[in-house]
Structure formats: C-alpha cells, structure tokens
Amino acid sequence: MALLFLLLRPILLLSLLYFAPISQSQSAAGEDFSEELLLRPLPDRKVLAHFHFQSRAPHSTSNGRHHHLFPKAVSQLVQKFHVKEMELSFTQGRWNYDQWGGFDPISSNNAKPPGVELWAVFDVPHEQVDDSWKNLTHALSGLFCASINFLESSTTYSAPDWGYRRDSGSLRYGSLPREAVCTENLTPWLKLLPCRDKAGLSTLMDRPSIYKGFYHSQRLHLTSSKFEPEGGGSGIVLEQTLTVVLQPSSQRTVRSYSHETNLQPSWSLTSIFGRKVSGRCVLAKSSIAYLQLDGSLVAELDSLQKENKISSADKYISEGVRRNACFEVSVKPDRVLEELKGLEKKNPSVLYEFSVDKYNESRPFDLGLTWKVPVAWSCQKAPLHVSRFLMGSGNERGAIAVSLRSTELTDELLHTETSEGRCKLEVKVFQVVPWYIKVYFHTLQVYVNEQPQAVSDVVEKMRVSPSVDKVSPGVMEMLLKFPCGMKSAAITLDFDKGFLHIDEYPPDANQGFDIPSAIISFPNFHTSMQFLKDDSTDKSAILSKFKENNAVLVYTEVLLVPLTTPDFSMPYNVITITCTVCALYFGSLLNVLRRRVGEEERLEKKEKEPGLLRQLLLKLYAKFSGRPLEPVESTSTSSSSSRSKLWFIILVAGIAVFWQVYYG
After folding, report:
1. Beta bridge partners of 206
2. Contact 163, 428 (CB under 8 A)
3. Mutual angle of helices 183-191 and 129-144, in 10-degree steps
4. Tens of pLDDT along 343-379?
C-alpha cells in the first residue's frame, strides 16, 4: 500500500498544480474591476479630469467573507449595517455651473457641495434606521479619517420624503459644510482600489496637482442587491470617482486675435499631473481613457471649418478620427464615438477613446491636446440659474432667498407639461436648516418676474418639518411649477436667530455658522449621453453610467449666518480673579489651622536658650559677683501674631463674599 502511494504521489502533485489555477480563476470570476479616465477642455481655459473606478462582487455566499478584488471593508459595511445604497463625497471648492456646464451627467451626479455629504438607504425596519445610520457614520469616520461621526447627532441629519430621493422612511441625509478635505481622506479612498496608486490610471493622482486645482471632489457610491427578496441584481457595486478641475500650465505664448479671444492653452497629462501612465492595473479588466469634446465646442469647430477660416493644410487627419483642423491630439485614438442626438441635445458631443492596455514603462501613455486656432464656446447650462443668499441685518432675524433666473432655453429643450393649455416648468427644492435658525415657513413668498404671486398658484406640493431645539433640524421639500416663459423667480422665508449655550459654540464662533447647500432639481429635464450602440459601449462602466436617465440637479451656495456670540473674555477674567481670591483665602486659612502655637513657643524658647558653655560662664560670673542668676526672657509674640493673622483672614473672606455678591 505504501509502495502504491509513493508511485501515485507525483501524479497527485501534478494534478494539484494543474487544477489549482482553474479553481482560483473560477472563484474570482464573479468579481471584476475597471478603471477609466475622462478628460474634457473647458471654456475658461481649464481642464476637467474625471476618474471612474468600478468594483463588482457577487452577493452569493459562495466566496464566504473573502474577496479577491472587492474591498473587504466595504463588504463588511453592507453586511453589518444592511446598506442598500449609499453615497459619500468629500469636496473642496464649488462647481461653476455657468462655465463648466450644468446639463450633463458629470455636473448632475459628481458636482457635490463643499465639505462632506452622506446619504444612505437601509434595508432594516423603520425603528432601526436611526441606529444603523449612527453606527454607519462612526464606521465611515474611522475608515476615511474624517469627522463623519458628527453626523451621528439628530440635529445634523434629516429623513427626506420625496424632495431628494424616493426612498421614504429608510433614507437618511446629512452634510458637514465646514469639513476640511486633505490627503488624509484621499489615501484611505485609494486603498480601496486593487492596485491603489501604484499602477494604472490612479498613478496620475499626484497630491500637489490635485489639491492645487480649482475644484476636486472624491465620491464613493455603493449599491447592493444582497437584501432583495428574490436575490437578483448584480451583487455589490462600488463606484469610486474623482472629479478635478485644473489649470494647465502651457508653455506656449498666448497670442491675441481680432476676435478678442485667446488661444486655448495646450496641455498633456505630464503638464497637468506631472506624471505619465506606465500601463494599466493588471487586475483591471479594462483600462480606457477618453477625450471628450463638448457638443457646443464641436458645433463651433464645424462652423469655423465651414466658413473656411482654416486652411486645409492645418487639418488633423488620422484613420478613424473625426477630422478637424483646430486642434491636434498627441496620441492616435483607437476609435471615435459620437453622441446620438436627442430631444434635449442641440449638438452631440464626441469621444476619443484610448486603450491603455498597449502602453508600458518603455512606452508610457501621455495624452495631450494642442490648439491651433482660438475657439470660444460655452457649455450647456441648467434650465435655470440658481443662487441662494441672505437678506436682512442684525443678530435677531433675517430671511433666506432662492433666486431662479432663466438661461434662455429653446422650446425644443423643454419637456413641457400641459395644464389647462399652459406650459409649466417644474422645480423641486430640498433644503435643510439647522435648529438654531428658526424658519417661519408660513412667511413663504413667491415672486415671478419680480411680481408677487399667490403661493397656491406656484407651489404644487409642499412638505415641512419644523425644527425642534437641540433635537432635529428644519426640513422643507417643495415642488414648484413656473410658467415656461418666465425670466426670473424668487422665493423668500423669514427666520429668527436662536441662542446657543456657551458650551455649544465652536472654537471659531465669530466666523459664523453654516447653512448646508439647498438641492434644486428639475424633474422635466434629464441628463443622459447615449453613443453609438455597440459591444464596447455596453462594457464601459462610465459610458453605461452616462446612459442613465437622471434628473438635472444643482447645489446652491453654503450660507454663512452670524449669530449672537457672548464675550468669551469676560468669563475668563471672572474665573481668574475668583480663583486668585479663593487661593489667598484658603491658603491663609489652611496655614493658620495647621500651625501649632504651643509648639512654636517651645521651639522659640529652645532657640533663645543659651548654650552650655554660656550657661556655665553665667553661673561662674554670678557666683563671683554675688548677683543672682537672671533667667532668659522669652520674646515670643505668637499670641499677638496669631491674632493679627486671624483678622487678615476675616478681611480676605469679607472681600471674597462682597465680590461674589456684586460681581459674581
């Protein structure tokens, strides 16, 4: 039997070595990871860089608690807190909706308010949602090294009904406008990637280049179908995006033209990030870079070419590439995708696709764009320009105003809703106000074209949750319907400023208190970008995301409200003087009570007693002189000194009582 085992041992070893990679690949077949980068020139001489990473894991229990590509920390969050959907964003700066666009998927899905924004949907009973939210905030705070745990308090988060998302009861929303964003938040975010920032497109994330930009927002979006009753869906999907707006440092001398426009700066990955891509992440199933030309830019380039303002010798011609003589791409694209025209799109955009798989360290990927002629264009804006500001003066009361101005959209762009033969433009407003800003919702006033209107004529639907002192913030959800031909509109709400306890003031109380950004959405307008139907488009995570038909969404400014603050120096002075008086009083009292009068007299007598030699000399002198020996007189004055100290203690105590009564 032993001889048979020795003969079969080599065969068993070979079979293990042969079948082990197959079983390993089958176990990891359910998980995948993709990385993509989108670059877009902006009209104000800046460049938009949008990184998109997607990790997917099956929800079945076949893999147990082990993952090959999917981050284990995120999987534990889903399992422990029963998270159905969650989104967390860290943002520095504010998205410029006028210059960078407000009618595209990136501006609606990835343009976030300053600071930290978190919302989550839980698959738990209604009475357990708040507990799950608090536990989730603590877990995320430790995972991303941020102050997300401040959202644990019921005064910082709300439960929207229909104004933000349609997940009534199980949705919680919170934001921290003053949260600072730094590399301590980006490093844990990068650790969730399989290759971190050591390989692939993530190597471009140079910290100084990112944080010196005009705007950057790192976002984490999580969806899970683990808790669906039928067990369907795609499992756990984690989307990590980083949106950065940078100013390219072009070495070309800027030339002026008669059209009073300057040549757009030329740029490359090296000039923007200071690095090149040495190849893809070996764990990624796809690594693709895109160069997007906005639809209005493409229309402007076509018009310049049709007007024969560009000579035919300057044309950039390459196989499979859209011909245009106004710019030159440093790397030959693999293919070109053109957006399909829709009802909401006047001009289709163009995507140049570059596969990073064929590049390596000896041949790094360094995409660059060089402009040949000056071009001026503007990105498509949101249906209405939205701004929010404060009115009033003083530290007692004020008003919040939301201004809506028309961006002169054409009638073809409007998904109109006919009601009694009139066109209506729907606007949804979601606003959370801290409890110390006591908003009077009955003071709501609506103005259309600078004329006051009845609230019932404009407000189609409204839900209000008044704030409770030190318990919950105020929440307002409104659905407004304006005439499509309006030029401007405004809504105002009056409020009173509350008073805080001295322990509730932050260290920088004189700076003011922040009111989080309001969320304005347009249900009749949707952002979606559909390109030519083919297999590669379906496999691309970012292009599949662009296909989603989401409503246009805009965040307003963060408001800074000054509140009445106490004089923090006066308590300090009172505490200092009181402590000084108490120290003198108790010190003197303790000194008198602890001192022994009889012991002091004995010690003083002992000190005054002459020495043995002196006593002998005095006795001899008295004997020979015939005079009696006189005893040494005690000079102790302990009784008088004790009496004076007792009067001093009484005086100090009287001064302390007088100060406490009249100045305490």
Report:
1. none
2. yes
3. 100
4. 556 678 889 999 999 899 999 999 999 988 888 899 9
